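Notes taken during the Thursday session

The instructor put the following on the board and asked us to keep it in front of us for the whole hour. The protein is UDP-N-acetylenolpyruvoylglucosamine reductase. We were told not to look anything up and to reason only from what is written here. First, the residues (404 in total):
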Amino acid sequence: MHEVSDFADPSRISAVVDGLRSVDGAQVSTDTAFSSLTTLRLGGTPSAVVRCSTTDAVAQVVRRLDDENVPLLIVGGGSNLVVADQPGALVAVVIEADAVTMSTRGHGLESTAAIIEAEAGAVWDEIVQMSVDAGFGGLECLSGIPGSAGATPVQNVGAYGAEVSQVLDAVQLYDRASGEVEWVSPESLELSYRYSNLKFTDRAVVLAVRFELSIDGMSVPLRYGELARRLGVDEAEAAAGEIRRPSDQVREVVLELRRGKGMVLEPEDRDTWSAGSFFTNPIIDESEVETVRAKVAERRGADEAVTMPVFPAGAGQEGKAKLSAAWLIERAGFPKGYPGQGAPARLSTKHTLALTNRGESGDGTPTTADDLVALARDIRAGVHAAFGVTLEPEPVWVGVSIDG
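Then, after some discussion, the predicted structure tokens were revealed:
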């Protein structure tokens, strides 16, 4: 959880914020709620919201707030935030710097790769669309993911068998301790499944990202079974990790799959008022897999236990296995749409891994962050009671915790 100071002096914060109005590229407001900044459309009003249209403005604003010890939260697309109804005395710094450039590494026929460089506030799916339209490959499996470019390395965004770490070339950071701006390598971020050493820390702010993509217009190897099948690829071939398809075809199918699960933002579709996949797929010791399977058999029967999805945990996690959070949630007794009509916060009716804001309860009371938090706690407790597996939330928590 992102900690918010309980003893920050509102008058002092107000004075500091007023000084930010002189920063070129910064716009200050004091009446903007987090509900208008997040895809969950939840969260109260912070002390101020500072929108930064340039990376220089981001660095200056963060530096001034840090110098004055004013609590702050960096906000991009707001797709990975669970914010309290009363977030406390803090300043939201919204990154809106969104310039994108494309080039190639090498010259002419000697070009070896495509390079896309994007400022942190660029809309992620627009970058993916640009890359595909330009005939590049590498980002197509990450189509339709809400949010901004700056968030992608922080949590090593991934979907359909691909991760940002596969194509990340460099990240530009503002170091909050030293005040320096520098480009760093992916290796320095210790990237792993939905993790980097930037996540859940305040040590640096992502200002820009750079990706190295293929110039042949072909996708990354197709490894995700559902996607491979839709593209006519045999699962055994997909498992070998060598089959690729044109990036535009892969993007089209990925968007279809995501829409079918309510994972593409649609203003009128309450199933998309979410933070995407709310829980990460749990990673456990391989020695624990059969224990979990036995608990599934006890609860759901031996035939279903045999079908429990188990995957390799990935590079650097030898001896570990990855389970499916969505599969466990459903088998623990939480169907799509749980807990049913009239609940202000519910599981998506399209996908059990998305917790959604329905706008209001059956009696017309507006949904609150507390409603969503209560649902998250209910589901996590139920999965643990059923199978002994503790689900970990993927979003950043601000002013509230799933642990109570």
